[in-house]
Amino acid sequence: MPAKPTPYWDYIKVEQLLSLQTGIGDGPLGNDETMFIVVHQIDELWFKLILREMVTVRDLFARAHVPEQALASAARGVRRMETIVRQLTSHFELMETMTTRDYLAFRDKLIGASGFQSAGMREIEILMGLPEEDRISLGHEGSYQNALKHHDGSESTALRRVRDRLADTPTLRDAVLAWVFRTPIQGSAPSGADDAARVRAFIEAYLGTQQRAVERVLEASRAQAHTLSEADVKRLEARAIGEIASARGYLLAEELPEAERPRASRIRAALVFIESYREVPLLAWPREVIDALTSFEQAFVIFRQRHARMVERMIGRRTGTGGSAGVDYLDSTALRYRVFRELWAVRTLLVRAQDLPPLEHADFYGFAGG
Amino acid sequence: MPAKPTPYWDYIKVEQLLSLQTGIGDGPLGNDETMFIVVHQIDELWFKLILREMVTVRDLFARAHVPEQALASAARGVRRMETIVRQLTSHFELMETMTTRDYLAFRDKLIGASGFQSAGMREIEILMGLPEEDRISLGHEGSYQNALKHHDGSESTALRRVRDRLADTPTLRDAVLAWVFRTPIQGSAPSGADDAARVRAFIEAYLGTQQRAVERVLEASRAQAHTLSEADVKRLEARAIGEIASARGYLLAEELPEAERPRASRIRAALVFIESYREVPLLAWPREVIDALTSFEQAFVIFRQRHARMVERMIGRRTGTGGSAGVDYLDSTALRYRVFRELWAVRTLLVRAQDLPPLEHADFYGFAGG
Amino acid sequence: MPAKPTPYWDYIKVEQLLSLQTGIGDGPLGNDETMFIVVHQIDELWFKLILREMVTVRDLFARAHVPEQALASAARGVRRMETIVRQLTSHFELMETMTTRDYLAFRDKLIGASGFQSAGMREIEILMGLPEEDRISLGHEGSYQNALKHHDGSESTALRRVRDRLADTPTLRDAVLAWVFRTPIQGSAPSGADDAARVRAFIEAYLGTQQRAVERVLEASRAQAHTLSEADVKRLEARAIGEIASARGYLLAEELPEAERPRASRIRAALVFIESYREVPLLAWPREVIDALTSFEQAFVIFRQRHARMVERMIGRRTGTGGSAGVDYLDSTALRYRVFRELWAVRTLLVRAQDLPPLEHADFYGFAGG
Amino acid sequence: MPAKPTPYWDYIKVEQLLSLQTGIGDGPLGNDETMFIVVHQIDELWFKLILREMVTVRDLFARAHVPEQALASAARGVRRMETIVRQLTSHFELMETMTTRDYLAFRDKLIGASGFQSAGMREIEILMGLPEEDRISLGHEGSYQNALKHHDGSESTALRRVRDRLADTPTLRDAVLAWVFRTPIQGSAPSGADDAARVRAFIEAYLGTQQRAVERVLEASRAQAHTLSEADVKRLEARAIGEIASARGYLLAEELPEAERPRASRIRAALVFIESYREVPLLAWPREVIDALTSFEQAFVIFRQRHARMVERMIGRRTGTGGSAGVDYLDSTALRYRVFRELWAVRTLLVRAQDLPPLEHADFYGFAGG
User: Fold this and answer.
1) Which of A5, A340, C30, D29 is deepest in the core (most CB within 10 A)?
2) Residue B67, class by beta-carbon neighbours within 10 Å (0-12 exposed, 13-18 middle, 19+ buried)?
3) CB C24 to CB D42 under 8 A?
4) pLDDT bucket at C324, cuts 50 / 70 / 90
5) Touching subunits for chain D (3+ Cβ pairs under 8 A)
6) Which of residues 315-334 of B touch C (CB under 8 A)?
7) Following DSSP, what letter does each residue of C131-185 receive, concatenated?
8) C80 touches chain A (CB under 8 A)
């Protein structure tokens, strides 16, 4: 209890906060530019909150043993991250109350200032686990880190924050996958002597049912003779064969170097396992966490696509202030930047409940007192 | 053009901004409290934007002559204010990701800090034109301005801002109504020698059609004999008579002292006139402005009611940190604080297009080149 | 697998569906009236979905033993109900694209037709468990069921649906509370010989900590000497004493007849217990269910308040087509209709984690294999 | 006034409506499938409303003379269309309360039924004016109309509706552009003898200012020497030259056959003119209409992208029930289907207010009585 009460304005630091919208130069700012600055400031504040929640969730999953009772709060943390991303997404509608002509009135001043210089956004991507090699170039040479240097080439605080974040490992992705890797599959833990064989048996049983599901759909599609030409049928057959082969290749991680396959394969099988038997108590919260992460990344993609729509509406197809290709660049990153690729990929392989292989060791997954 | 480009972080003042979430005392803050602080900071930033737009719109309508071509931009300014209020409203969903138990973990620190100490919110109410005498007491003695004093009773910056705003007249309400007052009604301007008579003629014609509309509805209701008892019918009749009398009383401003009636009556007639003949070019933008203001105030009421729901969910019915009665207080202000009362009141009097008195001097309301 | 594929239009019954917007009489309908009809049809469809989910959740909790693994899906069902209520709420914005004047163009036709005649809405209230005696009269004599009779007084299908629903027991409220009643408190089940004593011990321990929390807040408020008069301090003290007494009265269910107290008291204690120790695995899903129900009812209140705002905007304060007092009636039901009163009431009593009495028999609440 | 009042359930046709969710076959439906059917039914109802509004707006702009006082209501109609598209977009969140596994439980039944068989969606695209040649093939041979045939190849009602709509001309796009074509530019109407020369003079003046704006931005970018390599600077220069050339090519419609250029060029110049001088009374409502159409198409693109996200979340990357390539197909149509290309294209050319050529004949664009 403080000796004397702190008023709201000191707690929230209202006056300092409201003194930060001065922009560049000495002149007074118009309403449009003030809004432009404020929205970006609010974005940075939301980024800060997302980063804090993400660090907390990451730290939890980075532990050698993740206590089950922490999962509900981890899921809640991820859902909060998603709720904040939705706040960010809703800003675009506000920005669009500014017309192109009015934005252009102050855009010249921003030539050197671009949203690409937001350390917060870069930190989120880094901490989530976006691989550096997946980044799409901004349209001019040099890495995105160059955009964070001072005019004279020296290091900015923004660049330092980004570099610190690159060193702040593991990423959320790595931490979560390390935890997923340890999921008991059909009652078998990675430490078990016969774990590899038992996981493989689960994978084979699962692939069998997945194959039958694809074939069933193909059969039904063939029945639509009237709308399909022979070439159509051939194409559908080829696609079905492809889906069956992809499922196998994916669950066995065949696209990876041999040494990395067992771990990747176990992670993918665990994701299928959690989603398939999600009702059993021990899997219910892991499933919530996985679902929350999927939902969070989905919200992030929606945010990126909505961003592209706002930019297209505001300035059309002209070159971005950061020198990028503008709208096309934003649409590309929305579709190509994806961190939790395994979470998305397994959705293609899921089958309906009645086709699942039976769950083994069901009692292992229950409650003590339930 | 600046001599050297300003980077994003200087333009947005990112580092200063992100250093303001320290709360009270020395210890590190948890995620919940950081979110609590950030959301309130963002609220204050949104308030600032609303105030800026409101000043601009107020200044426009405070002019002796409001140029017609400024109305589209005024309407856009008010719509922006509404969009910001929706942003504010969406924060509650985020706040609710914090549980009661977790909020209580730091609530003690806030005893002296209350949302009632937000100068921004008070300034919005004042600038809009909420009459001081309509304010509902916070639950303890003394005016809301007392809550803005320092611990030792001295004046805070917050209090100074509120007092400055009280002196910053006219209010938006007064400025808008002064402009509405000058609306040509059936081609007659307030400066016209026979304006009072022509306005009165319009009012009488309008009241005649309103009376017939109420009677028509009553007749139709009477036809539902089966679900109505005799007492029901009597009650509906009494209500119809009341609606007819209210309409007359309202348009003639009979509840006011005699000296104030002509002006108030002309304003109310003008609002009915604008809404009724809104298609004619000269009235189309005034009608947009009126509609935008109505929509803005509606959004504000929705914000207040949603606020009450969030507080009820977070802390139930306990006493607020500001010492107020909590949820009930918030629900009361939502229903009773209303600034543009005339705009809401005329909605009760409107009639369908086919029943309107004919528009006189229609050419006066058209385009030069159209 | 069907012998031949069913096309989309037969599956969705598109043509039948699109033939139902004919309104009353023979003439073609305008866009506004068509929208008005369609929105109400969509409302009815959403109501149907809510009712189906609610029946499923009710059936689950009506079972003598609710399997733990069904709780995640029950929580998801309730969250879906909430998501649908949000859809309903978003319709009002669309309705408001119609102006008062344009609504009035066809309103006369609707004198005999009122939203109060929606069986779906009444069924939702009944199945949730709104007590009949809590209903606020529509403004004319006779129960809400009268409004569901045909013109000639005979029974309509709508009335039959409402009566069937009244017979369809238990309500969701009763089913959920029966399940909450069985919650193990500090390891003690209702069937235990000493359960009453152990529950009472928990309640007393909890009330002790609640009392200290209220006193702590009072102490801190007193420190704000500058803004408080002596009368203010007295009022705060009285309120604190009231909060302490209320908490005791509530947890011991003292407002009820003696015979009903033990059961009600155990339910209320269980709600406090679940929320307080929500992290332990056995309580994590019950807590999710409780939270989802709270969130659902909150969404419903928001829906009602938003409804009042739309009606006020569309027709002002005139009498509703159903003969009700219109906006005031809607605002009253929003604030007074509350089904899960216990869920809301306990929020007032919660304390921060560090003040909780220690959890006993923690192992009982854990996982078998965790 | 009807002889006897019609109750709500007859007006809304509640019972018929609620009998249409039977799906395929005889068995009872689960909640998930019922929701799936209901959401698609609601989609069809929203489509119907969009089509009705679109026909009304199209009919207005198809007139040889569009009365100025109809523009506010046209803008409101388009904004209503947008609001409905937002309703459609919000359904995806509800659909996502269904898990992949639960959707798969009934997906087999839908092999022959695909959203591609929604006549309503196709009609909207057709009436808006999506060129047939811009359509992306569904992934199998034959046009999208084939998907609307019955199993035995005969014509369905859906196909008939689509063909009727193809014959229902002009499209919204054509009607609007015909109206835009007639916009007075610098006081000159298309019927004026020297209109071509005066429009060309406006275009040249405008291109001059646009060129200076591009050069100014390039200059400022060059000042950022530290982050740019020589190759970067060359790329920016090339892009600037390209932007200047594109602007000229676009406003002169150089990509079109010579015969079509004058009309297209005048339309494009008119769009630039309206947006640039939007404050003058005669242009204020045209600008609102243009802005509403842009906003509507933006909402439609957002709807398509959100649709892709929902499908990806529900079924991953598997083949769609209509035999399409699924998510990739949906993402492609979102980015490539664009109807009001001119409205989007001019955004790239706009300049700030202070750089605009002076408005000529300003009095022509004012009010008679203003």
Assistant:
1) A5
2) exposed
3) no
4) low
5) A, B, C
6) 315-319, 323, 331
7) -GGGPPP-SSSS-TTGGGB-TTSPBPHHHHHHHHHHHS-S-HHHHHHHHHHT--B
8) no
Q: What is the dihedral of CA D236, D240, D241, D244, to 10 degrees?
A: 170
* CB-based contact A114 B76, cutoff 8 Å: no
Kindly tell me the sign of the dihedral angle through the C-alpha atoms of C352, C353, C355, C360: positive
Instruction: Choose between D325 and D241: higher pLDDT.
Output: D241
CB contact D222 to A (< 8 Å): no
Task: In whole angstroms, give the CA distance from residue D178 to residue D264.
Answer: 10
Give the three-class secondary structure for B155.
strand
Peptide bond into D170 cis (omega under 30): yes
| A116 has a pLDDT exceeding 90 | no
Q: Which of D141, D302, D312 is facing A309, going by the closest CB pair?
A: D302
Q: Which residues of C touch B349 (CB under 8 A)?
A: 316
Q: Which H or E element spans position D78?
A: helix D71-95
AA letter at C175: A
CB-nearest partner of B34 from A14, A31, A49: A49
CA-to-CA distance for C321 and B227, rounded, in angstroms?
13
Which of D140, D293, D344 is best to mutate for the A interface (most A CBs within 10 A)?
A: D140
Are C73 and A279 within 8 A, CB to CB? yes
Contact D279 B69 (CB under 8 A): yes
Give tens-digit pLDDT for C231-253: 878 888 988 999 999 999 999 99
Sign of CA dihedral C207, C208, C213, C218: positive
List, for residues A262-283, the tens digit of each pLDDT value: 999 999 999 999 999 998 999 9
Q: Assess B73–A contact: CB distance below 8 Å, yes or no.
A: no
- Residue C222's pLDDT is 80
- How close A207 gets to chain D, by Cα (Å)? 15
B230 touches chain C (CB under 8 A): no
The reported pTM is 0.95
Q: Is 50 exceeded by the pLDDT of residue A2?
A: no
Give just the sign of the alpha carbon dihedral A6, A11, A14, A20: positive
Residue C344 with chain B: CB contacts under 8 Å: 312, 316
- Token pair, residue C12, equals 């969705």
Instruction: Residue C303: count other Cβ atoms within 10 Å of its Cβ.
Output: 18
Tally of CA atoms within 13 A in the half-sphere of B33 that contains its CB? 19
CA C8 to chain B, closest CA, distance in angstroms equals: 37
CA distance A228 to D114: 14
Q: Between residues 102 and 121 of chain D, which touch chain C (CB distance below 8 Å)? A: 108-120
DSSP state of B105: H
Q: Do C112 and B220 touch (CB under 8 A)?
A: yes
A367 Cβ under 8 Å from any chain C Cβ: yes
Q: Which residues have CB under 8 Å from B14's CB, separation 6+?
A: A41, A44, A118, A119, A120, A158, B8
In the predicted structure, residue C323 carries a pLDDT above the cut 60: no
ipTM: 0.94
Cis ω on the peptide bond leading into residue A170 (within 30° of 0)?
yes
pLDDT category of residue A217 using cuts at 50, 70 and 90: confident
B309 contacts C306? CB cut-off 8 A: no
Which position has the token pair 């919110």? B121
Q: What angle do the packed helices C31-61 and C119-128 form, to 10 degrees?
A: 20
Which chains touch C (3+ CB pairs under 8 A)? Answer: A, B, D
At residue B140, does pLDDT exceed 60?
Answer: no
Of residues A220 and A349, more confidently modeled: A349
